[in-house]
Amino acid sequence: MALASSVKVVLGSIAFAIFWVLAVFPAVPFVPVGRTAGSLLGGMLMVIFQVITANQAYAAIDLQILGLLFGTMVFSVYLERADMFKYLGKLLSWKSRGAKDLICRVCLISAISSACFTNDTTCVVLTEFVLKIAKQHNLPPHPFLLALASSANIGSAATPIGNPQNLVIAVRSKISFGNFLTGILPSMIVGVIVNALLLLCMYWKLLSIEKNEEDVAVEVNAEEEMNSHRFSPATMTYFTSFNSQEWNSRLEVTAVQSSPGMSVLMGHVENLRNRSIPSENEIRGVPSASKEAANDVSSQVKEETIPSKRVASLDRLGDVLSVLSSEGKDDSTARWKKILWKSCVYLVTTGMLIALLLGLNMSWTAITAALALVVLDFKDARPSLEKVSYSLLVFFCGMFITVEGFNKTGIPSTLWDFMEPYSKIDHVIGIANLAVVVLLMSNLASNVPTVLLLGARVAELAADEKKAWLILAWVSTVAGNLSLLGSAANMIVCEQARRAPQLGYTLSFWSHLKFGVPSTLIVTAIGLALIR
């Protein structure tokens, strides 16, 4: 494709530059509008500058990708409600055999979770768990945070639903879920293993530190801390509840004070206790005739009134016990309903994965599974749907329009025509050159725009189109490990770790870069050799 007119090239480049600056640096001082508004601004400028028409802008929005994104986000919300991520967190510390075992578990669990539930969601829900585990074992947190972020990126490369750029590649290339998985899975498995070995080699001394005796007490409450943590995956927010013992004691006191049945029962116990204590006159005895007569009269009255009072008391006590038994039955019913609902969630999850492996349409499969969970929940879906990151969907809309406008300028085609002879995947040198270009562009312009700009051109000129798409998926995903700004998952881990209450830790750019550069280069090279 030849270059467009000079005016379109200049104006289109300005619009794309504005989009790029706001997407990579969302807190720009002179325009602090954020990524989502920056994406819309870039798309709007493409239309205003007449680089593309309004109809071309509408056509550029890929509804299949948006539907797949929406379905996976809704799905992750219901998986969180079904305690899926809490169980993953427990696996991190279950029968642990030391720091080196823990870091291997973090790598394995984050990789598998990212392949199934996206890397961003995995990093949101597991970051604070990782910080707690590091604190319990008196270990520096940054090796574990690096393990979480890097393994989440590597693991997400294995499936089309692992990250946004894979969604784009799967939809544009029409590669089935099963073919995508089998093509990259060997690279992913070896990549996670190599990444874990690099972490062990680089941080062997730090991971060999012995625990102090005073830190053993922290492990007593590990289970309670895991249970008290709650997440909101789609919106990347969280909160920590009160200490579980304090919270339970408050609930017990409140329940006793507020329950009418319990107050009546305590009143009857107090009355019976008072009646069992003899009066002063009964102990001393009174010999006078007048007192004896008075006692006879009072005894007759008591004999008449006490049986009726006892009957009434027993009736009330029976009512209280029946209320308590019905409440117990209600609690048991609610518990079984929750177990049944969780089982349904896990069955729907399994069914969705089977449907994807069978090659059904990924967008409609994800949306159908999400709506199945909405129906099975049998509640108002608004609270769950409010947790969906609609700003991410809007960001993608603006990005589709902006990238389409930039393609219309002819600049990407001209640059690719220059690189094409050196980046063919028919030989090793060409694959290496292509990998370097994708690595650099993914860190400079972000991985999703890189895939949108290069995807079709790389595939068109390749002898094996499927392999070209898979190479692009692998390199653009692993490229996120190069620097802290390379992927959204890295930024999520960094921000979640910094904001964690009482566990806050700042993962610096340089500490990430020191591990990210060798890990990215080695894992990328090994993975390229295994892609089929």
From TrEMBL:
What is one GO cellular-component annotation here? plasma membrane
Location, primary (coarse class): membrane
Location within or outside the cell: Cell membrane
Q: Which parts of the sequence belong to the Citrate transporter-like domain?
A: 27-479
Its BP terms in the Gene Ontology are: transmembrane transport
Q: Which residues cross the membrane?
A: 7-27, 33-52, 59-79, 184-204, 345-376, 388-407, 428-448, 468-493, 513-531
In what way does this protein cross or attach to the membrane?
Multi-pass membrane protein
Q: Which UniProt keywords apply?
A: Cell membrane, Membrane, Transmembrane, Transmembrane helix, Transport
Top-level lineage group: Eukaryota
Q: Does the keyword Nuclease apply?
A: no
Keyword set includes Phosphoprotein: no
PANTHER family per UniProt: SILICON EFFLUX TRANSPORTER LSI2, TRANSPORTER ARSB-RELATED
Tell me the protein's name.
Citrate transporter-like domain-containing protein
